[in-house]
Amino acid sequence: MADNGQTASELWLEARAPGFRDLPDPDRRVIFDFAFLWSLFEAQIMGNFARADRIREQVDRWAADGSLGADIYNAELAYFRTRYFSNGALTHHFPFLNLRPSDHPDLVQAVIEGTNDDPRDRVLSLLMIIWRLRNNLFHGAKWAYELRGQRDNFTHANCILVSARSSHP
Known about the structure:
Blueprint: H1 8-16, H2 25-44, H3 52-65, H4 74-84, E1 85-86, E2 89-90, H5 105-113, H6 119-138, H7 151-167
Antiparallel strand pairs: 1-2
């Protein structure tokens, strides 16, 4: 630890990662938390192997066994709907999810636009958004804008991951 309480890795990141030095501590914390929460979700819910098709299969199992609990994610869905859809159109943020064909982009868009409110599809869409946040973070796309403006995304993603794990022990 450095004298100011920072770890050696934080000091290294400040010196070498674009924008990290200017990232407020709460932003750093929520992103660090996301990395751990995703890892736990992938290990305990996804059997150590997450992929878009396997996430869909898991959501389908929850829907089939009656444990989906879509309403517990209403606040997070409202946040992502506002972020990605406003004034009758997708916002400039939506394309930056980088949804792939296997990520059910049409379904995610319909849920975000509010034209599809099916509980299974809402949960699947939220998990696809988190899947893309995860991929964009871990594969470097988020560094293109130095992780700025991501605190709310990761805060809501963290809430979803905690709720999913709490609801599906």
